[in-house]
Amino acid sequence: MGAPGERDVLRDVQRAVQRAVQRDVLRDVQRAVQRAVLRDVQRAVQRDVLRDVQRAVQRAVQRAVQRALEGRPESRPEGRAEGRPENPRGPSRGPSRGTSRGTSRGPSRGP
After folding, report:
1. Source organism's superkingdom (predicted)?
2. N or C: which end of the chain has fewer CB within 10 A?
């Protein structure tokens, strides 16, 4: 090539291009690493959350089953309906919530 000044300029340009390429490559690598790490972290969090939810559901089901088993006597007396307490006052005389009585609506009005 030509004069020493031209070689210096060429060397400076090559260095500048090399630095720019390195910056671009480094930025691309950093973004790729960030995406990979974020994806891995999200998967791990989802796994942990799913595991925690599964455990919570399992505990809730176990508690519900345990409560149901504790609330149910081993042997029921004859003639008693399943899941209903015995009525010491005798058999029921109609619906427990008196729809025909109209107590929740107040006094009846005429037409």
Report:
1. Eukaryota
2. C
Place of tokens 């508690």: 63
Structure tokens at 48: 């942990």
Domain residue spans in the chain? 1-71
pTM: 0.43
Q: Give the tens place of pLDDT for each residue, 33-50.
A: 999 999 999 999 999 999
Task: Judge contact between 82 and 76, C-beta under 8 A.
Answer: yes
**What is the rounded CA–CA span in Å between residue 60 and residue 52?**
12
DSSP state of 86: -
